[in-house]
From TrEMBL:
It comes from the Bacteria. One of its GO terms (cellular component) is type II protein secretion system complex. Keywords: Membrane, Transmembrane, Transmembrane helix. It comes from Candidatus Daviesbacteria bacterium GW2011_GWF2_38_6. The chain crosses the membrane at residues 12-31. It holds the Pfam family SLBB. Residues 52-87 form the Soluble ligand binding domain. GO terms for biological process: protein secretion by the type II secretion system. This is Competence protein ComEA helix-hairpin-helix repeat protein.
Amino acid sequence: MKEKIDKFKIPIGLSLVGVVLIIGGMVASGLTKPKIEYPKESIVSGIKKISVDVSGAVINPGVYQLDESKRIEDAVLAAGGLTETANGEYVSKYLNMAQKLSDGMKIYVPFVGDSAPASVAGSTIQSKVNINTATQAELEALPGIGVVTASKIISGRPYSKIEDLLTLKIVSKSVFDKIKDLLVLY
């Protein structure tokens, strides 16, 4: 029997060393690693706040800090909602309450009697067009803007400045030069 033990002494010894190392590694990795707990105050929520100016026919006009995921409807509600003197027809036709907000955005709710875009023979009289709220038809009425470009403008909303149309390559330089004086942003 001693011969058999001598014959397998090295493989048995190496096997025992291997088992000890494996068990030791498993124990060490689970017991010696400190569990790091971060204070809840240090966790960043990831929700960015933006400033939006709400004025006109709202109960409490002013600048409001809102989450960047909010919509125009949320900004109007933050300002207390519409007053009784708000131009409801204009709001329902031209103010897109579902539009996402952008930092520095201006939202004006007109009063009854404020001038609104007028129509003559079915076409809109050329007035300033708000690229953040204009309809497809209003955008297509601009010189050099067709169906595809109007759709690109709507898809790229919200804009923080008119020049975004050029920097984001939504319109060419020549088209931008034609329309830049016809655009407004709020």
